[in-house]
Amino acid sequence: xxxLFDNKVxxxxxxxxxxxxxxxxxxxxxxxxxxxxxxxxAGGAETVAHIRERGGTAVYQRADTSKPGDNxxxxxxxxxxxxxxxIAVNNAGIxxxxxxxxxxxxxxxxxxxxxNLSGVFYGMRYQLPAMLRxxxxxxxxIASVLGQVGxxxxxxxxxxxxxxxxxxxxxxLEYGPQKVRVNAVGPxxxxxxxxxxxxxxxxxxxxxxxxxxxxxxESTEVAELVTWLASDRASFVTGGYYAVDGGYxxx
Length: 251
Hints:
seven-stranded parallel sheet
């Protein structure tokens, strides 16, 4: 049976849990050979094991996306172990401290920007040349609804995610003529282990009410959109920002 990603190699950062894990699962189900990346070695190994148990191909490569060298090594692993690079999903990210901008901790700002914005740039810095050598490809950067609107006490996260959208658009203009598409996906609030652990039931219910569909999203729903953007079905789609947000931005 023909699948969407026959003979394609994908890498997914932050794939040891949550949204990244389900993206890796979905790409593998559609035939991609997947490089699973995270700093959570146990979670990354679980993702790889799940893919292999279902007949897919996956390898794990530890990478701290805030370090340029780790991103370079990640792309090298895709080429050396799986034969190239055609799809990259820059998903790894953190929430960071909660504080007003005038009180925001400097070290917290630096860490959020390093992972959530510089990490996406470092990834693309090495992914793009590899995709040019492969004859083209698709990069999907995971932004957020907070890449379009503000949110109290989250200045670093909001700034980083806005930056990801701008970076995506600039790269799309530069590489479109060379058959590399670059898009951003903006999840709303998604029900992941991290969200459920960090918020009380009351806070979760309040968040649900901020979405038109009156619920949080599921990571599989984000993965479906990413899979479409990665595929040739989205062959004329680049430079865009696509929300999967249950109507959060409709307000």
